[in-house]
Amino acid sequence: MELFREPNFDFLRVKWPFIGFSLVLLLAGMGSLVLGGGLRYGVDFKGGTLVYVKFAEAPDLNRLRAGLREQGLGSSTLQRYGHVENHEVIIGAEQAENEDEALDTSRQAILAALRATYEVSADRLDLNAVGTASLREALVRLDPIGLSGRPTEAASRYQEIARNITDFRDTQRGGLLGSLEELRELEGVPPAVVNGLEEEAILAPFVVRSVEVVGPRVGQQLRQQALLATGLALAGMLFYIGVRFREWVYGVAAVMAVFHDVLITVGFLALFDYEFNLNIVAALLTLVGFSVNDTIVTFDRIRENVRLLRRESFPALVNRSINQTLSRTVLTSGLTFLAVLALFLLGGEVLHGFGFTLLVGVLVGTYSSIFIASPIVVGWRGRGRSGGRPITLPKSEQAEVVKRKEKANMAGRRGR
Length: 416
Hints:
alpha/beta; Alpha-Beta Plaits; 3 domains; two-stranded parallel ribbon; 14 helices; elongated
C-alpha cells in the first residue's frame, strides 16, 4: 500500500527546526527532573512492601486509595494483577524502616486501612483470614458440639473441622468464602458448628494472600540492572549496525537517535509525574527496538541507493531514500500508535504508564529517524565536501562494486 505516490518532500531542508524542537523537549524534561528531585521511583526500585490482596468483588480503586490515604498511606500504589475475574490487587507501600519491621508494620497498616474502608471489625473472627490453628482454638472455645468434658477428643475433632473449612475455602473458593451457607453442605462440618460461627464469625470481602518486601538494596540492584540492560542493547545495536552497514556512522547515528528518544520520553514521564517502575523499563526497551527498526529501514534504503545512484549528491540521495520509505514509515508508526493509544485509554491503571511511554516514544522515534538520525549521517559523510558533489563509496563498497563489474565483464566476454 502506498499512501504517498512518488513523494518528493525536502526533509533535510527543515531539519534544524526539528532539531531545535528536540532540544526544547530535552531541556524541558531535564529541567523537570532537576526541579522535581529526579524520577519518582516505584516500590520496585526504591524498596517497600507489596501486599497481595484478593477481593470477593471487583474493588473500587478510588475508594481503596481514599481509605489508604486516611491511614497515612497516600503514597501507596495500586496495581491489578492476575485474571480480571479473580479481583486481585497489589498494594505497594513505601519502606521507611528495616526489612523485618517493614514486613509487619506495612501489612498491619494496609490491613487497618482495608478494614476501615470495608467496615470490617478487627475484634471478630474473620473466616476469610483465619488460619487452621486459630480456627481450631476458636472452635474449642465456642465448643458448638459439646466436647468440653473431653479435651483430647475436642482438640482432635475441632482440628479436623477447622482443616475441612480452611481447605474448602482455599482450594475450592479461591481463598474467599462468600457466605457461611456454603459450609452447610460441606462434609465433615456439623450444622451446629456453622450455627456457632454465624453468631461469632464474619466474612470480610477481602483476604491478604501474601506479603513481600523489596529492600533498598534490591531496588538499587534493579535500577542498575535496568541501566545495564539498556546499555547492552544499545552497544549490541551499535556493533551490529556498524558491521552490517560497513560504516560505523550508521550505527552511531542510530544509537544517538535512540538516546534522543529515550531521554525525551523519560523527560515526559517526569513532566507528567509518572512513577518509574519495571513496567516503564519494559516500555523503554520496547521503544529502543521500535526506534532502531524504523531507523534501519531508512538506512537500508540509503545503502541501496548509494550503490545505484552514485552520481547523485549524498544529501539528495538521503532525501530520496526517506521519501521512498515514507509510506512504510507512516503505516507502521500510525498503526502502532493506534494500538498503543487503545492500550493507554482502555488498558486500565496498570498499563497507563506503559501506554503513555510508548505513545510518546512512537511519535518521537518516528520523527527522530527522519530528522535526527539521517542528518547525522549526512553531516558525517558530507563534512569538508560540497553538498552538490557526487558521493564517493567507502573502500569496502568500492571493492564490492569492482568485483561486480569484473563478473559482468567476464560474463560478457563468454557471451561473445
